[in-house]
C-alpha cells in the first residue's frame, strides 16, 4: 500500500476503508474472491500482518467463497453495518494459524452452533466454529452489541440487535450472561413502551456492578470486587445483584408478566371454547338426524294396517323417542360447560369432552 492510499485509508471511516483500497489502481492487486468491495481482506494488510490464516481446503476452495466476508454456514456475504453486529469471526489460533472464518449470528443460531445448546456440542452462550471446532465465548460480543445500540437512533435497528443478543444469552447458566440478559430484556421492554433512548441507556448501579465483573475468558463467574465481605458470601452477593434499583424496569417486568398471564388465559379459554363447540355441534347434528328419522318413521305409521308389521313400526317410533330423550339429557349435561371447565364435573368433562382432569 503506497503512502497516499495509507493516509486515505486511515482517515476514512471504517465502513469506507475498503472502497478506498478498491478504488486505488496501485493497491497491490488486493481483491476479494466474492467480489465484495467492503471485504475485510482488502485492508487486512493494514490491520494484521502477523496473523497467517489457517490453511483451508474445504470452503475456501470454492471459487466465490472468501473466508473474510462469506458466512461459513450460508456462503453469503456479511454486513459491516453498525460495526458488523450481525456476524461473528472465529479468532482461534490453531497450530500457529488464525482460523478467521466468519458466520452470520442468525445462521449460527438457526444451526444450533451459537447460544446455549445441549447435546454433544454443549454450548453455553458460546459460538462453535464448524471449521476449526473451537468455541468462542459470546458474552463480550453481546456487551459490544449493547454498546453499539447506544450510538444508533433507529428503534427498529436497536430492537433487531437486542433480539439477537437475547437469542445468544437465553438459557445460559453463566451468572454474567444472566445479568446481561436481564439488562437487555429490560431495555427491550422500555423500547416498546416508548421510553426515550437516552433514558434506556442510562447506567444504573446494578449495571455498573455487572459490567465490571464480566470476565472475557469464558468461565462465566463473577470476578472479585472491593466488597470482600460480599464476595466471601456468594449467596449474599447474588441476592444484592438480583435486586434492581430501577423501579421502572421492575414495574415493566411485572406488567409484561401480567400481559403474558392474560394472553395464556385467553388462549386456554379459546382452546376450551373450541373443544366445547366441536362436541356440542356434533351432538346438535346427531339430534337433528334423530328428529328427522323420527319424523320419517311417524309419517309411515298411518299407511300401515294393524298387525305385526304395524306393531314393529310403532315400537321403532317409541324406541326413537326414547333415544332422543336420552340424547337430549346428555346434551343438558354437556351444557354445564357454560360455567367454565373449572366448574364442570370431572365426569362430564371426561365422558363428553375427552378431558382427564387430575385432582
Automatic annotation (TrEMBL):
InterPro entries: DUF7615, Oberon-like_PHD. The keyword Zinc-finger applies. Residues 247-352 form the DUF7615 domain. It comes from the Eukaryota. GO terms for molecular function: zinc ion binding. One of its GO terms (cellular component) is nucleus. Keywords: Metal-binding, Nucleus, Zinc, Zinc-finger. Residues 35-167 form the Oberon-like PHD finger domain. The keyword Coiled coil does not apply. It is found in: Nucleus. This is Oberon PHD finger domain-containing protein.
